[in-house]
Amino acid sequence: MTGVRTPLCDEFGIEHPIFAFTPSEHVAAAVSRAGGLGVLGCVRFNDAEELDRTLTWLDENTDGKPYGVDVVMPMKVPTEGTSADLASHIPEEHKAFVDETLRKLGVPPLPEGEGREGVLGWLHSMARSHVDVALQHRPVLIANALGTPPTDVIEECHAAGLKVAALAGAPKHAQSHIANGVDIIVAQGYEAGGHTGEIASMVLTPDVVDAVGPDVPVLGAGGIGSGRQVAASLALGAQGVWTGSIWLGTEEYRNLAGNRGWETAFLRASSSDTVRTRIYTGKPARLLRTRWTDAWAAEDAPAPLPMPLQNLLVAEAHNRINASGDPDVISMPVGQVVGRMNAVRPVADVMRDLVAEFEEAVRRLDGIAAG
């Protein structure tokens, strides 16, 4: 046996059906060069020119191998106005809570003029511009973190020869995605970092596979950090895996992260040191549990606001927290697999181990079946 191969490998021109979501173009490029499919998260980009420059860099640094992009776009088009208009809907008590919490946690302010990074990327209009820019480059996949993209976006991607993937946390969501033209389902289990549903991947993956039928590829997601877990996902019927958290613990990610506080935080964390909460975006998402998440869980804390208001409320706070480098406060989406992230390694090493462990797991199962 040589590696992990399913029909998705031929469809996308990759060696292994390991899809890697990451906000870092350096990680995405390294995954693609190592035989997987790096998928760049676009939500951090506030303007089209910055994303255009980054995708140009990816075009030039993936050795001609394919990559994908991930956007955050609801199917229903909201009447959103400008970010300034939306900010006027944030209650003063929420602003006061954030300010007081940062004071109590000892988080210093950012230098004058900084603090808005990553806010506009959550708006529907910005997500549409992300798709427009991506279509001027050479991704092979557009993935949507909020389920089914608008129908016209799906049609535009198909016309350009791109496949469209969407995350699903329940079988009914997967069926809806397919009915609206989505090509690939990412069955994201409860264990996953970031936006995630309420069903664990051991149950969700086969339920989604059965719900969409044999002709629709499903990627298993949630808690995948070893080759054994890749093998388990494929055994449940998936044709590949969608990974995310494990790439936060790579040397290439340091090009984006820029602080050691995050490394200290995840290296010491166990699988029980995460929390699923609405405080990050307004929708349920799994984060590393820290003093910041604990503050929002206190009885006197206000309820999180709906998306995108919660993003606007906490964006500057998150930038301040991350810049401070305090591992006790750091705010970061991460899955329960964080307990396995006990070293910082190059992407190529992580990919090599995923494949080797997969092969070992399959050989062991073959031995059991033969016996």
TrEMBL record:
Top-level enzyme category: oxidoreductase
Gene Ontology molecular function, alphabetical: oxidoreductase activity
Pfam families linked to this entry: NMO
InterPro entries cross-referenced by the UniProt entry: Aldolase_TIM (IPR013785), NMO (IPR004136)
EC number in record: 1.13.12.-
Family annotation (Gene3D superfamilies): Aldolase class I
Domain of life: Bacteria
Keyword tags: Flavoprotein, FMN, Oxidoreductase
SUPFAM superfamilies in the cross-refs: Inosine monophosphate dehydrogenase (IMPDH)
PANTHER family hit by this protein: 2-NITROPROPANE DIOXYGENASE, MONOOXYGENASE RV1533-RELATED
The protein's name in its UniProt record: NAD(P)H-dependent flavin oxidoreductase
Species of the source: Nocardioides taihuensis
